[in-house]
Specification:
Rossmann fold, 244 residues, alpha/beta, six-stranded parallel sheet
Length: 244
C-alpha cells in the first residue's frame, strides 16, 4: 500500500506562534506513529492572500474558482491529502477569516473541480485550537471545523480522552506572545501539558484512521468502483510514495 499524505494546515496569519507549536507536536507524533507510512507537508496561512467567496457560481461553468490567488495552491494540496490536521487560533469566538474564506470557496468549487462528481473525500480530519483565555471559544471553533469535515464527506478524528474529546484545545493564560503556549509547556504548566498531549494523540489517531480507511478502500475497491461518488477517493489509493 502507498504511504498516506498528511497535510498540516496552520490557520494563523503568524509565521510562528502557538498554533504552529501545536501543529508541530501533532505532525511529529503522526510521523512517529507510522514513520514509513506517512509523508507530511505543513502549510501556513502566513503571508497568503485568499479572498472571500462572492457566490458568483462561475466555478460551475469554468470548472474552477475564477478568483486567482493562493486558494488554488492550498486547494490542490487539500485535494491530494489523505489526512488533514487544522491548527488554528480563536478569532472572535470563531475561526480566522482567512481560513473561513478558504473553506467557503473549497465547498462551493469542488463539485465543478471534480468534473461534476459529488465526491466522498474520505479524508481523516483532526483539529487543534488555542486561544488566549480558557473559555474563549475553543470548542466552538472545533465544532465548526468538524462540521466542515462532515460537509466535505470526510471523517473527523479526535485524540484520546481525557485530554481530548473532539480535538486538542489550549490557552495561553491571557498572553499574546507568539511563544506563550510553548513557554508555558516548557515550564510544566498543567493546561499547556494537557494541550500538547491532546495534540500528540490527535496526530497519532488521524494517521492510524487514515491508514485503516485507505487499507479498507484497497480491499473493497471493486465494490467502491461501482459507486461513482468514490471516484476521487479511489484515485488517491494509488498516489503517494511506496511504503517500505
Amino acid at each position: 500500500m502507498d504511504a498516506i499524505r498528511l497535510l498540516g494546515i496552520c490557520g494563523s496569519p503568524r509565521k510562528t506562534g502557538n498554533s504552529r507549536f501545536l501543529l508541530e507536536r501533532a505532525v511529529a507524533a503522526a510521523k512517529e506513529t507510522a514513520p514509513d507510512a506517512v509523508e507530511i507537508e505543513v502549510y501556513t496561512f502566513a503571508g497568503k492572500e485568499i479572498a472571500p467567496c462572492i457566490s458568483c457560481f462561475r466555478c460551475m461553468e469554468a470548472g474552477d474558482c475564477t478568483t486567482e490567488d493562493d486558494f488554488q495552491e492550498l486547494r490542490d494540496k487539500w485535494v491530494a491529502a489523505d489526512a488533514i490536521i487544522y491548527s488554528v487560533p480563536v478569532y472572535h469566538m470563531g475561526i480566522p477569516g482567512q481560513l473561513k474564506c478558504f473553506i467557503d470557496r473549497l465547498g462551493n468549487s469542488l463539485y465543478s473541480y471534480y468534473g461534476g462528481v459529488i465526491s466522498r473525500n474520505l479524508k481523516t480530519v483532526g483539529v487543534a485550537v488555542q486561544g488566549s483565555h480558557i473559555f474563549a471559544g475553543q470548542e466552538q471553533v472545533m465544532t465548526t471545523l468538524i462540521n466542515h469535515a462532515v460537509l466535505m464527506s470526510c471523517v473527523p478524528v479526535a485524540g484520546d480522552p481525557w485530554q481530548s474529546y473532539i480535538g486538542a484545545a489550549g490557552w495561553t493564560r491571557n498572553e499574546s506572545r507568539k511563544d506563550g503556549l510553548r513557554r508555558l509547556y516548557d515550564e510544566g504548566e498543567a493546561d499547556a501539558q494537557i494541550a500538547v498531549a491532546a495534540a500528540e494523540s490527535l496526530g497519532k489517531r488521524v494517521v492510524q484512521m487514515a491508514l485503516v480507511i485507505k487499507g479498507g478502500g484497497l480491499i473493497h475497491r471493486d465494490m467502491l468502483e461501482e459507486d461513482g461518488s468514490y471516484t476521487v477517493f479511489l484515485s488517491r489509493l494509488a498516489s503517494g510514495n511506496q511504503m517500505s
